[in-house]
Specification:
Elements lengths: L1 H28 L4 E8 L2 E3 L2 E6 L3 E10 L4 E3 L9 E3 L4 E6 L4 E3 L6 E10 L1 H7 L5 E7 L8 H12 L3 E5 L2 E14 L5 H5 L6 E14 L13 E7 L3 E8 L4 H23 L8 H10 L12 H21 L24
Parallel strand pairs: 12-14, 12-15
Antiparallel strand pairs: 1-15, 2-8, 3-7, 3-10, 4-5, 4-9, 6-7, 9-14, 10-11, 12-13
Helix pairs in contact: 1-5
Protein name: Transmembrane protein
Keywords: Membrane, Transmembrane, Transmembrane helix
Length: 346
Amino acid sequence: MKMKLKHIVYLLAFLLYLAYLGHLFYELATDYPLLSIKYDFVDTIQVPNIKMCSPGYFEMVACDYKLNNNNEMPGCLRYISNITYDLDDQRYCRTFNSNLEYEREKPEGLNKLKFYFNINQTDAEAGELGVALITLDFIPPNFDPLLKMDKAVELRLQLQGNFIPAIIDRISLIKFRTKIYNSIPPLDSHSIFGITPNYHRTPSVECLVNYFPFNNNPYNMPFGTNGYFSISAGDFIVEETSEKRTTTILSIFGSAGGAFGVVMGTLTFLFGSPRLDPWGFVRYFLRSQDDDKHLQYDEIDPRILNMLEKYLLNVYRQLLQKLPNLEPDSNQGLDSNKYLLQIKFI
């Protein structure tokens, strides 16, 4: 009865352990990553690319640099493309592409970009329900529009309203922040196993804009300007969001090992522990491979044989002395030629 109960409990424990392993692998297959956020403090931030579009024809009158020491210099018009017309959207567009960087502490470093524009008010107001404006779309410099992940992020950003309007007769002060989203590609072997994933980095830009009344006759305004906007870094902190798997193969090994320890500990507590084999499978396997290896008596060094014969004879005499009614015969020797000495290698 006792053995029957023991076998039943062992079987139930084995089935329970198999069910737990199945649950772990199910968690691995259906794992939904968690998000971790960290903030990196940087000294420089690259100026994002800008797509500027409007229903009405517009000109970029001037573009100036403003440095950290409050000095201003012209010359960034060269980064603005010629105007194009999009037949599908029926809009005029220009792009701003540069390799410029905002610098946090350097006095001669870039602090702000200032744009002065002139827009055809009649056409723009007709296309934008009475408000003449230029829509600004901020695109990270290393953004890849050909990748599906970047396209998905681009659509998400557009739905959130990532377009910033630069309105006629208004001053638009725009500050931006840089964000990075690290996503795990499907079936990434590194993340499934439990080491650092091969992340796909998707950058994005988050903007904040403030509007102020426009002075039509400032002393330093370029001629023909009827709108102005500036772009600067909101801060020098990059927010990086990364996906993290909660279940990996390594975590399964750890959980399975812990569960195995609990099961075996419980069974040992209930039924005791059987005698452990001091040799183990590897030792047993190696011994079994060498069972047929031995040395014949004639192949052993005579000096070693002589020492062994003397040792065995001494042991033999000591054993005889311990037996009653028997005396060792001093003339009796050991005939070593009658024996075969086998030395096994273990």
